[in-house]
Specification:
Elements: H1 3-16, H2 28-42, H3 45-57, H4 62-71, H5 75-83
Helix pairs in contact: 2-3, 2-4, 3-5, 4-5
């Protein structure tokens, strides 16, 4: 089981038991999406380089990325980054 799967299952258990919790940190996918937004807004190539580096070194949930990239209007930037891997 990956760390992501473990965290998601733990959160589901806490939710089911109605136990309050706070998670500090971010998933690689969320960091990538934030950098794609930042890069789109600023034209910063550094953000795209970071997204590519994360995608190369982390196991990422592409379905999640594609779904949220569409929501955030950065689908073309995500496609570009994934082609550069």
């Amino acid at each position: 089981m990956s760390q992501t799967d473990l965290l998601r299952s733990t959160v589901a258990l806490l939710d089911a038991a109605r136990i309050p919790y706070m998670i500090v940190g971010s998933y690689a996918e969320d960091t990538m999406l934030a950098k794609l937004e930042w890069g789109a807004a600023s034209g910063s190539e550094r953000q795209m380089d970071d997204v590519v580096a994360i995608a190369r070194t982390q196991s990422v949930d592409r379905d999640y990325l594609e779904r949220w990239a569409a929501e955030l209007d950065v689908s073309s930037q995500l496609a570009t980054a994934l082609k550069r891997m």
